[in-house]
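Batch manifest, entry 17 of 40.
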Amino acid sequence: MTSRAFIRRIYHLVDRLMLSKLQESTQRRLLSLILAMIRRVCPSAGGSLSVDRLLARRNLREPAKPMRTLPAWAVDDMRGLAVEVDTLLSPGAFLQSAPVARYAPTHWVDAGAAYQRILDEVGNRRFDTILFVPWLKRGGADLGALHHATLCHGDLGQRTLVIATEPGDSPWAGRLPRDVAFIDAGEEMAALSGPTREPEIVLARLVLQLAPDRIHIINSHTAWRMLEQFGLALRQQTRVFASLYCDELTVDGRVDGLAQRHLPTTSHLLDAVITDNSASPESWSNMLGINHDLFKVVHFPAPHMTRAARADAAGNRVLWASRLERQKRPELLLQLASRMKHLHWDVHGTALAADDQVHKELRRLNNVTLHGPFDSFRDIVSAEHLAYVYTSAWDGLPNVLLEAAQAGLPIVAPDVGGIRDLVPARWLLAANADAADYVQALEGLQANSDSRQQRLREQDERVALFTWQSFANGMRRIEGYADM
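Output type: structure tokens
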């Protein structure tokens, strides 16, 4: 923990337990002393702080005990309103619910400042479509967001704005079309008060102010929460679309993810949920009881790729390229590389932790080369690769499989998510396939050239359908998405 983070934690603890309970004048004197001490111990941590800023608390606070009940004049007012306006305004029903009084941080101005900063960056421009993303970096959902932004701006002729709502770098923002506006609001949203819904309020107010024809939520947690809180207001003048791809599995085996968390409370507010595979909508309809008509399956286009090898070629190297994290089952990769020493494994991807044990074990194997991250699939595939091995425990339809198919590599993968939209189901392994299943499949590819050729022909037939034109036509068929 950095000294800045440590000091922040200590301050918030002291503030909650003692400072917030004192009179403001006393608080000011003590805070002046505390700030002087902080600047002496850690100048970089206290340089931007002031007493006024520290007093502007984000969290709701309890008032003094005598102030926690409705005053007599308010009770009388509510009785009158219940008789003259609406019986639901009766104070009895309100008091029986045992409401908890809180001081609202009415003098906290950061939300207004964040809203104004974003509005200043927008200027006097008007937008037909706003896409909400967490960020734009290397990833399948991020590539999907680029596809949607390019489609809206280019093929559909819509004035398009992309807003990043979570803290983090967006190196792929440079891949957006030149005239697509991009605003990185992640750090500002993270600095606002979560308990008082300030990030959601800022985004909702922005949408209401700009009044686009449509918004499209792509993996933005803040935008999903905005929809939950203010969806009815937003829908008065704006259509609402969202992209969802697959569920996740927790360590204890539970199904989790954006769909599980938000669809039950927002499905009635959405014009359509756009997904890249046919398997996920079936699961969501069955599990969550949501009308299947809400979901629209639109496959992303496969990238143009030079063929890595002839159909009858078979090398002695295997390609594995993904994130070394729990979803991708790196422990299974380790088992395969350990058992199939006659094959050389080209592993592309980075571990989430520097001390990752699987990563250390892979590094010790002589038949494994750890290449690190990659920017382009065409740079890592070669004619020596026998196959592309994919070991994910859950997924939608990952773009890397479209790239592998375009490159002319037979795909050895489990039957999870929408992978069968690309790879015929008869070639897929069981969803819970173990190392023995993968070994058998790879040995079959080595031993049977005719089978390898057949697999490639069937993959080629499928991937040929994943074109930009097909993607654009699919989006045009969604009511309200292509309208101007």
